[in-house]
Task: structure prediction
Amino acid sequence: MRKLKEKKQTNIQQEQAGKAVQIYYELAGSGRQNNKTGLITSSPKTAGVQEPRHSYRPTPSRSEAQTATGRPDSARNKAVQAGVKGSWESAYRRLFNEIKVRRYSPKTLKSYTTWVRKMQYFCKSKDPALLSTDDVKDFLTFLAVKQQVSASSQNQAFNALLFFFRHVLGREFGKVDGVVRAKRRPYIPVVLSRGEIDAILANLKYPYDLVVKLLYGCGLRLFECLNLRVQSLNFELGILTVHDGKGKKDRTVPLPLAILPELREHLEKVKALHDRDLDEGYAGAFMFDALERKYKNAAREFVWQWFFPAKTLTFVLEAMEYRRYHLHERYVQKAIKRAVSRP
Result:
């Protein structure tokens, strides 16, 4: 605190700094205050945490008062905190397992985990066994009123917490009433004209132009296009098969006749790249689920190679080997953004 005074910090800034240090040592465990500097310093011998000089903390509870006076109850607090932390870690493991068992997509796992973590932060790491429907109501209302999220984001949070309560905590969600819902605004999609599409394609370089042509000509989602394997395209029948699309569903779509020559030329380049990889002794393309354990040589077969392979190999440290992944979504998105912004 003396340092802050020497730097002529305001009283409010000094109070904020004192509060921040206090919170830090409360979370970290035990600590004590240095009478000369006014700061709290850790000490293995002292179990209590003393209030900083500039603190606007509300009236402490009984346990906090005991801690402030130096009574040895920090060990119990640490045990409680460790138990709550372990409960949340266990909950996240169960959430991961429940989603994997149902074969949900990695994006669903990431989304649900993110919303549960936000709920944990909102409830200040309250023991998951003590969470109630009222906590969910408060959180969803907070998202709509304070965070001003969209209706789709609030619904996504609701579905994530519903799954968490039902399949991880093992209890029914209950009726959720009185929640402030985010308003769904009317949305009119932007449809590009044929001339605008041609202008964007003219500004795209290979292979991004071919990716966009497949997106536009076959009605694919970006992740569906980049997850295509060589065997997904049947040039004789003129069809493209999408495996594990949205909702883990398969479907077939016709290949655009106008880009068939470009697709064949691209396939030859993929074959040449695959031959070079084999000569260099790479381990193959990344496979999904347990397919590689069942078919040990599938990763090196040409039919299982990505139709849009990444430009560089990926080193797998655990296996000490090189593999190839597909073109990353971010590169395609950036290429399209640059193409749109060009005159």
